[in-house]
Please model this.
Amino acid sequence: MAYTPLEDSAIQQLARSVAAYDDQAKALATIKKYESTMSWQQSESGTLLIKTDANGTVHQLGPKTDRLVGVHRRYVDAQLAARQALAACSEEVRICQNLNRTTGANRVDPIVIRILNEFQASGLGGFCKVIGTYALYAYEAAAGVTFDPATTATNDVDVLLDVQQRMRLVRELGAAGGSMIQLLQRVDSTFERDEEQKESAKNEDGFAVDFLRRKEPGDSEPFSVSDNDGDIYPVQAENAQLFLNSPVFERIVIGVDGSMARMRTVDPRVFVKFKRWMSGLEKREFIKRGRDRNQADAVEQLLNDGLLQSALEP
Model:
């Protein structure tokens, strides 16, 4: 068997953790609606209701009336409720993270968890898909199993960028801090671009984040992911269009330290198809071809056993 089922207690804890993470995400989305402050201020014309946005923009909502008194009260009450809900959800996440450390489902290198959370917090989640070996952890979490160490062994994570939305990506990167390297350095200050392979960023421990993009006809010129000097140059990946056209497959994955993140990857049937194709490439190293085949077999077995669901027809 290519996988080992998690114990019932681990599956129950995984379900609790997923619910806690999702509830916290909803609470964070709700509280964003109440980032502004609303207060009464005295002016020459009387008492005014002032709304100040998080970016400092000030709006005069009008002089004090019964209607605006109600508006102010409802806003303040809703803001307080949102803060209390977030605090409760965050406490549940903290408890789950502590419990996750001994479940057996805590499988992912914590640095990958931090990178995924940074992508999400910076508004880049929709531009990035985890592909390659690390996608296996999303399939594990969905199926309630673990693969053997040889199947999941890797010291890098592959991230496919949707450069069809390059202008939006550059805009979001600018708002998030300027460049992909700077974003990764917020996770680990030792990340630097690999000057021999400019699609990669490596930290002092040798862990690499490799960025890929789809191969376009007639597209041979490399380009930076942002307008900043020294940033990542995503490399063209053969057959990457298969990934970009795939239905998105998302799961909460758990780090070795109990931390959690949402992993966005590709449909498992697409993963199997791509790994089968990779395993047949004669120019690819023999050992890697064998691992590609084993990974395809492992995910296909989950599909065949009904433990993993695909949005695509067999």
The chain has a mean pLDDT of 92. The radius of gyration is 23 Å. The longest strand covers residues 248-255. The CA atoms of residues 105 and 185 lie 27 Å apart.
